[in-house]
Amino acid sequence: ISFYAPADDSQAVEVTLIPPEEGEISIIDFFGSMPLVAHADIKTRINGTAGITGKESQIWGNYKMKLPFAVTMNAPPFIPPTGISKLPEFSPDNRNKIRHSLIHSELATTVENSLPLGGDFAILLSNESFFPKDVTDKALNDSALIDMMISNGIIWDRPIPYADPNGNSYSTDKLYIIDDCDILSPAKDTIPELGINNIYIFNVMNDSSQCVDGARYLVKHSESSEVDTVISYVDTLFRVLLPSPLEYYSDTSTVGHPGQVAVPGLTSYSSVIDTGRIFLLTDYGDHYIVPRFSFNETGDEGVFFSRYDAIDIKSFITFRVASTGVLGPTENDIVLKYPNGGENLVAGTQYDITWETYGDVSTFDVHYASGANPTEDDWEIIVSGHVSNDSITKYPWAWSSANDLYRVRIKDSNSDLQDISGWYFSVVPSQLVNTSDGNEVINKTSDGNEVINNTKMKKPEKLHK
After folding, report:
1. Among 413, 352, 354, 367, which residue's Cα sits nearest to residue 386?
2. Which domain does 441 fall in, by range?
3. What 3-state class would DSSP assign to 32?
4. Which of 326, 347, 382 is the last residue of a domain?
5. CA dist 308 to 26, 58, 262, 284, 304, Å?
6. 416-425 pLDDT per residue, tens
7. Hey, which bits of 70-140 come out as E strands?
8. pTM of the predicted model, to two decimals?
9. What are the tens digits of pLDDT across the range 315-360?
């Protein structure tokens, strides 16, 4: 913006914008995080007397309006469409130190708000780069959110236009939210009150113990799948209160404009950051944050924004840590990715057992067990002393017999470090089926034998294309 018109003058003047100093943010940047479109409801009238003769066929003329930047703010909370930031994955050393040493964390904040209205803004955290506006069904299935999910590789059945007599459209896919870890536990075979059978969680967490109560987990339901799928979580990392101004300029003020902030609001407070949130932040993979603004409603009363408005936030975070975790060595880690529970595999078909390693682990023993609650004697060897220096390792394997209670274990050959499937997975027998055109569905295994896929098997929905 290079020109502006003062409220008491119709003539626009040119100004030189001074860039913000280090640690400051321009008010232009602040409004840059606002909604992309602002609608103004403007009413005008022509004050005067005139007459219309029968010979005239139209009225013409022109008029001029002066519009100081006075607004009413009654919008619901919103997320700026361009405000999403990516946080890179924590290094294994930093992750280990934070997770093994953190006792308590507290955020102390002082806010001076010169904006003409109060409210709050929160920093939201997710493992995906899409965020719903709020938790209502309408917001969860908003077309803009669906577009963002599709652009991130989420398979989604697009809404069918005008699918009912009332001209409405619908999709066979929908999102809903669960914030109770008991419901997300794989041990819950069915949730009758929700009308769903099984929820596949392992695209978002490697084990149900990683679930954080109170975090909002976005679950995708599709009529084409018997299993609903957790696709992401959205959690509030922290919230900052914006105090309302203490005083505004009035009509009788000799300086300023009526409705402009005369005395800013000031507040100081502290809040505890739950360790569960810290664990989400330090989890494996990239993370995304976005601010969420909520302003107090002004009703019919307008407030005046100026280029001098500002928000000054000073914060610091205090960590209480255990010296043993900070000074100790970085621990190695193994994370089993597939099969991790809930899958339905076909006997005789080859699959890649996949795991990730962090730290210095290069030799692995791979086992499987069948049956509930396997003991050490129940684990059968798949391969011993398998060497891999890759961060992601795949080992091909085909299960020969069917069972509903299989698990896999990846173990460091030189220590007790291991990871086990987060829950049981099933292996179903091969079955001969026909497609709609009468052809048989046949796959070849690694040993050259032909087996038939069971196309009716229940399986968790594929998350990405």
Report:
1. 413
2. 333-452
3. helix
4. 326
5. 9, 45, 11, 42, 11
6. 999 999 889 9
7. 70-71, 85-87, 102-113, 119-126
8. 0.68
9. 887 878 787 767 777 788 999 999 998 888 999 999 999 999 988 8
